[in-house]
Amino acid sequence: MESLEVRELVYFTAVAEELHFGRAAARLGMTQPPLSRAIQQLERRLGVALLERGGRRVALTEAGAVLLRESRTVLDAASAAARRTRRAGRGDPRLVLVIKPGGDGGLLPAILDAYQTEPGALPVELVCSFGEREILLREGRADAALLHRPHHDLTGLDTQDLLTETQVLVMPSSHRLAGRTRVCLNDLAGEPLPRWPGASEGRSHGPEIHDLGQLLHLVALRRMVAVLPSSIRDQLRDDLVAVPVDDAEPTTLLLAWPEHATSPALAAFIRTAAAVAGKTTAHGG
Amino acid sequence: MESLEVRELVYFTAVAEELHFGRAAARLGMTQPPLSRAIQQLERRLGVALLERGGRRVALTEAGAVLLRESRTVLDAASAAARRTRRAGRGDPRLVLVIKPGGDGGLLPAILDAYQTEPGALPVELVCSFGEREILLREGRADAALLHRPHHDLTGLDTQDLLTETQVLVMPSSHRLAGRTRVCLNDLAGEPLPRWPGASEGRSHGPEIHDLGQLLHLVALRRMVAVLPSSIRDQLRDDLVAVPVDDAEPTTLLLAWPEHATSPALAAFIRTAAAVAGKTTAHGG
DNA sequence: ACTTTCCATACCCGCACGGTATCGCTGCTT
DNA sequence: AAGCAGCGATACCGTGCGGGTATGGAAAGT
């Protein structure tokens, strides 16, 4: 049975996303007729209708929706394959670790130091990215990432838990809750919360948050309050206070990497990170 | 940047597996020269050497090994995409569940009964397969599978634990250990163990095991002994006995399905299975 | 009913993929 | 050392398919 081709899947996802052959063709840098043909051909080959052409309106069929989702994973896998292969081929081997600035729970320096003493340790390149960090992993642009559960989608990734933290509410010292020794989620009703990039449109319509400094600044300006892992306390500005949120789900900082990763350097890094985290947790609480 | 094509990856995996252009070409149903060209083109496009042509010998480079692994996941994803799309397009919606005969811990009948009472339940098609059950899932041939941790590789799958069991040693009643009330792994030194299909060549060189009846038969014939989940006791022949293995890692029976699965029917099935397992475990131990 | 919009069809062209023939290197053989 | 055999690379050629232009035809808006 003749296999699907990447080109066809690219075409199909374009059409499925635009729901408009003309725009999809423009986006693909081609003209509309060959695109129509390609989709028809794909439908014929699969023996399944993917789109409902309603004269004016184009809609996905059930099967089309399935193929759209599947296509994305295939295309991700394909571009990751290219990127990882290129990286393996080029000389200068490095470990690319993507982090959220301020989101390392204070563990990162110790981990990096410990790792550099490992035999065969590679230089570690840090990439800071506030949102979309999982994407970088899935696309093969990075070797590992520091993520948070349950905040991030971990499907397709292997993980190593590093640090489980309770969460604190961060607010200006003048805030009505600033005097409390503890709060619970109900106390936050009506408070504007930050809108994280990538997260589907939340309660707040304010600006997207792109970095921790910006977030703390906005909090200081009384534009919002934020619920963050307690290790944030080490980095708080003087004009902000943090109090525990009793019923907020604990957050786990973890190291994530693509499934099936085989690099021994990455394995050593994971081992080191787990060891450092275990040690810290052991007497740090 | 021009993307990789499925055809190229198929070609490359053929060559990488055969390490011989001629044989690879034959396997692909084509002649050798276009294959050589395609690989060269792939290397040029990636800017990376994938194969070392040592006059007589063809070997994978580091990058080639990476691409081989990545290619397999891409090709799996692609064929799964085709299969799932076709299944979504055809009428008759069913849930395909792949099981190991005798490997259901006795839960399956209750799960199936409970599921059929769910609103919108689909007919469930059972597929029995002793080995390679994960593959069926990854290839999109099945919707869910009953697997065991740690026996199976669960990467790329989402899972729901159903039942954790201790393991027992199954042997003929005349076996030297048959009188014991418990054994430990050290007692098994030198005993021939079954060779499971898919598992990389183990200690035993006997025939591969393809079904539970066969295995028990071989055990009865004193050809081997087996360490199995304790629920196997319900299905033991009269001439066999089972005693707990104290230090064998407990086995967890779980339901696994492909990541990103969205079918509501599957979701209902998972929910039902979890509920049934929870109830059973609650008073069953 | 006329227009507009947009997908499908018809037709043509160029390229890239696959085939045949052959070269050239390498390692074994005697 | 020379001959040979195995095997990948190169050269060259034909054709099928992917992509382009022009146009048809159905549906929605006015």
Concise summary:
Two copies of one chain form a homodimer. Chain A has 285 residues and is of the alpha+beta class. Chain A is built from eight helices and ten strands.
Summarize the structure in words:
Chains A, B: Pfam families: HTH_1, LysR_substrate. Chains A, B: This is LysR family transcriptional regulator. Chains A, B: Residues 4-61 form the HTH lysR-type domain. 2 copies of one chain form a homodimer. Chain A is α+β, with helices and mostly antiparallel strands and 285 residues long. The first copy, chain A, folds into 3 domains: 6-87, Winged helix-like DNA-binding domain superfamily/Winged helix DNA-binding domain (Arc Repressor Mutant, subunit A, Orthogonal Bundle); 93-161 and 251-284, 3-Layer(aba) Sandwich (D-Maltodextrin-Binding Protein, domain 2), CATH 3.40.190; 167-244, Periplasmic binding protein-like II (D-Maltodextrin-Binding Protein, domain 2, 3-Layer(aba) Sandwich), CATH 3.40.190.10. Helices cover 38% and strands 20% of the residues of chain A. In chain A, strands 4-3-5-10-6 form a 5-stranded mixed β-sheet. In chain A, strands 8-7-9 form a 3-stranded antiparallel β-sheet. Chain A is globular. The model of chain A has no long low-confidence stretch (mean pLDDT 81). Chain A binds chain B through residues 1, 3-7, 9-10, 46-50, 61-63, 65-67, 69-71, 73-75, 77-82, 84-86, 88-90, 155-156, 158, 259-260, 262, and chain B through 1, 3-7, 9-10, 46-50, 61-63, 65-67, 69-71, 73-75, 77-82, 84-86, 88-90, 155-156, 158, 259-260, 262. Chain A binds a DNA duplex (30 and 30 nucleotides) through residues 7, 20-22, 30-38, 40, 53-58.
